[in-house]
Structures are given as structure tokens and as C-alpha cells.
């Protein structure tokens, strides 16, 4: 197994170390660092960024061709780590000689070092993994002046006498926000602000999941297996890519081999909507893009989205944007002229 020891105190040093160990090239976009590699060790990407309130964001999306571990130095009673596995599985321990805990797809692991001073993350050979690590540093008065850091310290560090590790129940909402992170195309300050906002949202969802799990012995999606959650994710992607398809609940269920009850539970958990509500949401979002970016008229947009009623489309569009499609299109033309 290849082990990479990480003691870097800042993002630039961290990525210099990763480049020396893994290879590849590093791109810097304001505060964001991106390492891309495709060599004998593996293929993929690591990106990271320091955001306000002493929060560090690190994302790994890679397949390694040999077993590999990151051994990260971490001060005691200081840093809270939120590690989410969006694809594949990985393992975690408080140092290379401690027992491992497996983190499965859609799970969050929350850890703090109380007695130990190392964290080790293990990546298995030929196993594609996408994970997001959000680390909150609570050391020093200036950190504790931030109410977020102070609250998290009280919850996950104070009064702890042993290393703390928590594994969440499955959470599909987080994977949806990571997809948004991956889809950011903007550059410059706008890109930085979007990343910061989404990282804070993911952190909030992870803290919320911990609270829910503590409150309930079974989470809201505890009756869905990991396989069923993956099927819900697959159906979501299909709807996003083919909004023009006339989806029926039974057809959707048959497509992924799940019962209507399971599908509805999954969509409510991931999107806060029923299946039909989500389909309407995707179509309205797509229609807004078509109005802004094409010369199609409203009737053509209705046809493109697989709808048969223009009046129905106008109603669901107005429910979302508080404006009819025709007025929205007119405003877009005026804005373009201005």
C-alpha cells in the first residue's frame, strides 16, 4: 500500500505535496486548487479550497490502481472532520495502526481527534471513489468568535474523553448538492462564491443528519437500502437528462425495479418532492433555459418538453416563477436589447 503523509498547514502546501506524491498538474483558480492526474498510480482529480470560518473543503474523485492511504496529521481537540462518500466505498481510522471503519456510499462520517493526532483515509485498488471532506478548525479565540465554529465545538469536541467517530444513516440530499458543485461552470469570484455556498449547504445537511439520527433510532430513509438509493439516483439522472419523456409512476418504478412506495420515499428524501412534483420541477427549469437560450416559441417549447397542454404548462411555469412564459420571454428579449 502506498501511504501519503500529509502535514501541510495551508492549501498551497497540501497540493504541492499531493502533486509530488501522485503526479499530475495543478491548476489554481483564485482560492481553489485542482490536481488532475492520469498515470500508473491512478486517474482522477483532487480539488480543495479554504473558505470563511476556517473551513477547508477537499474533494477526491479518482480510481487508484493500487491500495492507497492519506495519513493526515491533526491536532487534538481542534478539528471536526465531515467526510461524505458520494460514490464507491472508503475506510477511515484514527491513524494507520488503528482499527478501520468503512464509509459506504451516501454516508457521512464525523470525527474529532481527542486522544490521537492522526487521521487515515484508505482508498482501495481499482475502486472509483468520489468523496468530500469538510474540516472545521476551532482552535484559537478568533475561530471561537464565529458562532458556527463555537456551536460545532460544543457538539463534537467539548466533554469528549475519547476519539469521536459517528457514521450517519444514508442521505441523498447531499449527493444532489455535490452534483451542483461538480456542475459549476462560472469562473472568477462568482465560481468561488458558488463553491463556498454549496460547501456550507453540504455541511449544514451533515449536521442536520446527525441531529436527526440522534433524535430517531431510524432515519427518515432508514427503510431504503443502499442499492435502492442508488436506483433513485439513477432515475433522477434519467429524468434530468430526458425531461421530454412522458413519465408515469409505474413506468419509472419498472425502469429501476422498485415499488411505487420506495420510489416516492426516495424522491421525498432526496428532493423534498414526490416523483410527479420532481418531474414538473425539471420540466419547468428546462423550459426556463429554453426561453432564455433559444428562439423557440412557447408552443414549440411545450412540444419539446413532451407536454400536450399549453395552458397546463403556463400554469406550472407561473407557479414557479410568478410570471407567465410569454411575459418571461418578453422580458428576456427586452433585457437582450438593453
UniProtKB/TrEMBL annotation:
GO terms for molecular function: DNA-binding transcription factor activity; sequence-specific DNA binding. Keywords: DNA-binding, Transcription, Transcription regulation. The keyword DNA-binding applies. Residues 233-331 form the HTH araC/xylS-type domain. The keyword Transcription applies. Transmembrane segments: none annotated. Pfam families: HTH_18. InterPro entries: Homeodomain-like_sf (IPR009057), HTH_AraC (IPR018060), PchR_regulatory_protein (IPR053142), Tscrpt_reg_AraC-type_HTH (IPR020449). SUPFAM superfamilies: Homeodomain-like. This is Helix-turn-helix domain-containing protein. It comes from Winogradskyella ouciana.
